[in-house]
Amino acid sequence: MTTAQPARDVAIVGFAHAAHTEASPGTTNGVEMLAPVFAECFAQTGLDRTDIDFWCSGSSDYLAGRAFSFISAIEAIGATPSIQESHIEGDAAWALFEAWLTILSGHADTALVYGFGKASASHDLDATMAAQLDPYTQSPLGPGRHHLAALQARAGCDAGLWSPDDLARIVSRARGIDPAEVAAAPQDFPPLTAFDCPPVTDGACAVILAAGPVAERIRTVPAWIAGLGQAIDSAELGARDLTASPSVREAARQASGGEGLGPLDIAELHTPYSHQEIIVRRELGLGDDVRITPSGGSLAADPMFSAGLERIGYAAKAIYDGGARRTLGHASSGPLLQHNLVALLEGRG
Q: Could you tell me which InterPro entries the record lists for this protein (predicted)?
């Protein structure tokens, strides 16, 4: 399905996220983090909650440790008067996809998309994340999330696709530390050091979408969604080449309508491990002229189930703040870049 030229114009007009912390005192339903994030989005756009036609969230009951945790999160919205609301079990970037389709279909003119996760509440994050693996052959083994990534990183090193020095340069840029310090760090998950892995992060974020005329009233230069695409690879890790991600390439093809990505100023990539940036850049065909994840990305902070939406939010903010004309936002979900989403955004006029 080609989605690069939708019937209605839809733009991102607001974006905010909670402070990234290693641990937070709030509950796992995200209310304490979400309420100020919503308030910031409303302050940016001049809207209030009664102006939002559709709400859509992304989170994980497994991570929250309770069933229907997203229902409790609605306390941050206020369900009276009645609201139109939906939810996806996963990164909120896919909630953005649903909200975009809802506006395109004419069922809403505005939408607020949000995601949240409190990773610090899990007493065994590796066991929690292993629940997404194949339930017969992989999940019972309980592999650690960093150890799985190390298998992928080792495969790329052995194939000559990257080296520890390449990874050190990526880490240095994302974390703002000296490459020599990275190179000297012990390889806790060979060939990965702790610097190559995402930190445990609690967080939440939200973006506001609006249809054409509404978006133009809110922003002088909205971040128009030129295309969105998503695709998924096999859940069986042994059935795919871990050094590649065809679903990234297919998501980009859908987003561009098969016309190619064209010139980009910025690409915000959701790559929790250093070597995954190399994979995604290669699949997208990004050159050295594109600024890669200036926000720091998931190596700096990795708030689960909102990190992908943050990448799209930062890509949008660069446009409506005047720092870029055309950007790309990428989100990933599942083990080792299994499921990917690509958003192409542009300023006009």
A: Thiolase, Thiolase-like
